[in-house]
């Protein structure tokens, strides 16, 4: 955490707060931006495969016996005899292949996959993933992956030096998987729609239901939405409505969102994020630091001429203590802009702002949740 990074971050925060409150804009968003369809969730796929064509950076077959077993099984399936001794080539690596099956994916469409090394391979650069089946949680095969592995990192080494940038043991195969099976559930067969809020909040859920009901009253003559809890809003399908067109109309409705008051602090990076609804009760703040400096200045003492003495070193230590502290300041934050301005006007160094916020929270004057990362 550096003073410069804190100063820049808080200066940017002050400018953002000033612009936001100066415009007095309401936090409005479309339904599609704050909620997702429960039937439209992703599904995770996983598989085990081999990457071939590596330039001596693959698995050593002694340390990774499963790689050799997989190679022999693959060659036998291709009708090639594997009788003989072990191979010493290092151009093959065993990998785990993962992917996300998007909602409403149809057979024949392509998705990206990620290949990650399982053995002691040093790099997957230049390799090709051979045909790998990808299964879901139910054990069914939903996609088959194959293609060239794209690795962003690199590794170069010589006899006495080595340089590595990024991760070379994992890569992506863009569009490398072809979907072979579609999900069993069909969107058109749904009786109702369930909207899940990405940031659960009771106020936002109620407002989404009200906006949808206003739309349904005008177009369908009745209310169709109900907020089940802080995260889910259930929408009943009207008998004469097309479900796809209904969802297209609902996801473009504009809702005034609401979020809880939070202050997020990352002490490692020096990042401070203060929500717009954060309030601070009137509190007095004083911040001071104590700096102790120890300076060693050894001196060389020479003996007198012809005294048969010896040269000696005499230690000399100077210790100085400096205590700095600003005046006691009164902070009262009715909004974000006033709070940021008050913290900047205390007259302390930016690295003390985190300690001040923690102290204000401990005193009970910070009317928000303090999140430490």
TL;DR?
This protein is α+β, with helices and mostly antiparallel strands.
List strands and helices in order, with pairings:
Elements: H1 3-23, E1 28-30, H2 31-34, E2 35-37, E3 43-52, H3 65-77, E4 92-101, E5 110-117, E6 128-135, E7 141-148, E8 154-157, E9 162-165, E10 170-179, E11 192-197, H4 202-219, E12 225-227, E13 232-236, H5 243-250, E14 254-256, E15 262-266, E16 271-274, E17 279-285, E18 288-296, E19 299-301, E20 312-314, E21 317-325, E22 329-333, H6 336-344, H7 352-363, E23 366-367, E24 369-372
Parallel strand pairs: 15-24
Antiparallel strand pairs: 1-14, 2-11, 3-4, 3-6, 4-5, 5-10, 6-7, 7-10, 8-9, 11-13, 12-13, 15-16, 17-22, 17-23, 18-21, 19-20
Helix pairs in contact: 1-6
Subunit structure: The basal body constitutes a major portion of the flagellar organelle and consists of four rings (L,P,S, and M) mounted on a central rod.
Family: Belongs to the FlgI family.
Function: Assembles around the rod to form the L-ring and probably protects the motor/basal body from shearing forces during rotation.
The oligomeric status of these chains comes to single chain
In percent, how helical is the residue content? Answer: 10-25%
The overall strand count is 24
From the N-terminal CA to the C-terminal CA, the straight-line distance is 13 Å
Overall number of domains: 3
Stretches with pLDDT under 50, minimum 5 residues: 1-25
Quick check: average pLDDT? 79
Number of helices: 7
Taking Cα atoms only, what radius of gyration do you get, to the nearest Å? 32 Å
Main sheet attributes: strand count, strand direction, barrel closure? 6 strands, antiparallel, barrel
Beta-strand fraction estimate: 35-45%
Taken from the alpha-carbon principal axes, the silhouette is flat
Class based on secondary structure composition and strand pairing:
alpha+beta
Q: What order do the strands of the largest sheet run in, or round the barrel if closed?
A: 3-4-5-10-7-6
């Amino acid at each position: 955490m550096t003073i410069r990074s804190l100063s820049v971050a808080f200066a940017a925060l002050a400018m953002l707060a000033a612009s936001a409150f100066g415009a007095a804009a309401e936090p409005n968003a479309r339904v599609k931006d704050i909620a997702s369809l429960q039937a439209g969730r992703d599904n995770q796929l996983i598989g085990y495969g081999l990457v071939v064509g590596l330039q001596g950076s693959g698995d050593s077959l002694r340390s990774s016996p499963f790689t050799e077993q997989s190679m022999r099984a693959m060659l036998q399936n291709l009708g090639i005899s594997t009788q003989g001794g072990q191979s010493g080539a290092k151009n093959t690596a065993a990998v785990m292949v993962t992917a996300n099956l998007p909602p409403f994916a149809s057979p024949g469409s392509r998705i990206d996959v990620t290949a990650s090394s399982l053995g002691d391979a040093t790099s997957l650069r230049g390799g090709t993933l051979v045909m790998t089946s990808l299964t879901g949680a139910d054990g069914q095969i939903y996609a088959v992956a194959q293609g060239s592995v794209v690795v962003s990192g690199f590794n170069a080494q010589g006899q006495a030096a080595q340089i590595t940038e990024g991760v070379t043991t994992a890569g992506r195969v863009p569009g490398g998987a072809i979907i072979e099976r579609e999900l069993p559930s069909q969107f058109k067969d749904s009786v109702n729609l369930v909207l899940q809020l990405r940031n659960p909040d009771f106020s936002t859920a109620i407002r989404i239901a009200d906006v949808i009901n206003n739309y349904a009253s005008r177009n369908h003559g009745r209310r169709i939405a109900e907020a089940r809890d802080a995260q889910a809003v259930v929408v009943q399908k009207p008998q004469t409505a097309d479900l796809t067109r209904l969802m297209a109309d609902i996801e473009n409705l504009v809702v005034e969102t609401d979020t809880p008051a939070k202050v997020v602090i990352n002490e490692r990076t020096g990042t401070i994020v203060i929500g717009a609804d954060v309030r601070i009760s009137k509190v007095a703040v004083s911040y001071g630091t104590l700096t102790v400096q120890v300076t060693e200045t050894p001196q060389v003492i020479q003996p007198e001429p012809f005294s048969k003495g010896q040269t000696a070193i005499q230690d000399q230590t100077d210790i100085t203590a400096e205590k700095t502290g600003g005046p006691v300041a009164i902070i009262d934050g009715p909004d974000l802009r006033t709070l940021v301005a008050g913290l900047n006007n205390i007259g302390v160094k930016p690295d003390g702002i985190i300690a001040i916020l923690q102290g204000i929270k401990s005193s009970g004057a910070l009317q928000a949740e303090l999140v430490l990362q």
